[in-house]
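Attaching the record inline, Q. Sequence:
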Amino acid sequence: MLIGTIVYSRTGATLDFADRIAQKLRERGHAVELTVLKTDGQVRPPRPKDFRLVNVPDCEKYDAVLIGGPVWGFTAAAPVIACIQSLKGVAGKKLLPFVTMGFPLEAMGGTRAIEAMKQAAQGVGAIVMPGMIVPRLFRRQSRLKDIAAQRISEWFVD
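Structure, as predicted:
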């Protein structure tokens, strides 16, 4: 299975999670293409305006798509939502949203972020999978990323 993974990461925490997911998927025999979203200028949380994504991939060639980003202001980062809304080639394909967050509890923005991403994905015709939230829980985010990456990889079976 060819899986496209799209990630927006300002600090590197979400990119690290995306890399771990890609590694676990590759261990299961999948091919993974990782796209790190870029903007035409600096984007500042929580609700940036006037930015443009410069490298949204065409997802036609992928069998499934994962898209992730950080939680900003108790919801998904604006570049992630903008990316989902502009995705081409995802209609009828599985799409899994994932987020990282600085707060320790998923209910402190993670759940709302995943719901916003799911709604945007439904709007472009994707088959939305359960999302994955990795909070910073008592400095164990690294371990939580590994557990979540393993779980995500188990959802993709050829």
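The mean pLDDT is 93. Strands lie at 2-7, 31-36, 64-72, 75-76, 94-101, 127-128, 132-135.

More tomorrow.
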